[in-house]
Amino acid sequence: MQTREFVIRLYERHGHGLVEKLTAIRYHNVTSRARCGLAGGSTGNPDCGFLYLLVKAFARRSIFEIGTYVGTSAVAMTMAGGHVTTCDPNDYGCLPPGIRFLNMTDSDALRVLRREGAIVDMVFVDAAVSLDAIALLNKIGSEDMIFTAHDYAPGDKGELCFRLMSKHYRRATESTWFLPEAEPVEVTPGLLLERTTAAMIPNRLIAAL
Ligand SMILES: C[S@@+](CC[C@H](N)C(=O)[O-])C[C@H]1O[C@@H](n2cnc3c(N)ncnc32)[C@H](O)[C@@H]1O
Question: Which long-range contacts link 42-45 to residues 24+ away (Cβ below 8 Å)?
């Protein structure tokens, strides 16, 4: 299955109410950045919508995010029903209640989760993932963990995540990558999804979609 077909299938089966959710997600983004005087750098609607659909479609419950910033992507995944733990060495103070924030790097946050005995069933990376973090995900990732990375483009951090996860994640061979196409997918007139997110989905989840 190509990325386009995958995204359309997700939207057709799980996209009910997505437009309204995206409006609320964008509201968080715009108001938070205005409050903190920040410009740009937050995950855009096409990728937030894609993350939302992945959480909904595959009933993800325990999500780990690397790179909080103002929390737009964390809000999107939370709205889809996931419990999100997000980490960032910088605290922008923009997260709404209900999202757990660990004010530290990816490896340190994963060590905290490991000590707590947590299992993670989805990861969204919006920074450069470290080898140390992948080693920890090999330990605390669920059998059917979904991995996603933002900014998949030549030489960008998403491509680095793609290369490192393909090589070092222990279940990479049991999964399929869906990489962004040249243009986002227009699932219905005016609604674009999946601009720059690389998603590694376990084959058995794809088969059940
Ligand atoms: C592009 S922003 C994330 C945007 C966020 N997804 C959103 O929707 O608002 C990247 C963030 O990654 C953080 N970061 C950089 N290296 C990190 C690391 N090793 N662990 C966790 N966060 C990191 C940066 O401080 C920055 O806030």
Answer: 42/69, 42/70, 42/72, 42/73, 43/72, 43/73, 43/76, 43/126, 43/150, 44/195, 45/192
**pLDDT tens by residue, 130-151:** 999 999 999 999 999 999 999 9
Atom of ligand 1 nearest to the CA of 76: 8
DSSP letter assigned to residue 44: P
| Distance of CA 123 from the midpoint of ligand 1 (Å) | 13
- Whats the size of the chain, residue-wise? 209
Asked if 13 contacts 59 with a C-beta cutoff of 8 angstroms, the reply is no
Q: What is the pLDDT of residues 59-115, one digit of tens each?
A: 999 999 999 999 999 999 999 999 999 999 999 999 999 999 999 999 999 999 999
Sign for the pseudo-dihedral over CA of 81, 22, 141, 128: negative
pTM: 0.97
Nearest to 7 by CA among 186, 175, 144, 200: 186
DSSP reduced 3-state for 13? helix
Enumerate domains of the chain plus CATH numbers. 3-208 (3.40.50.150)
Ligand 1 centroid–CA 89 distance in Å is: 8
**Is the shortest distance between the CB of 121 and ligand 1 below 6 Å?**
no
Q: Alpha helix (H) ranges present in the chain?
A: 3-14, 18-36, 45-57, 72-79, 106-116, 131-140, 157-168, 203-208
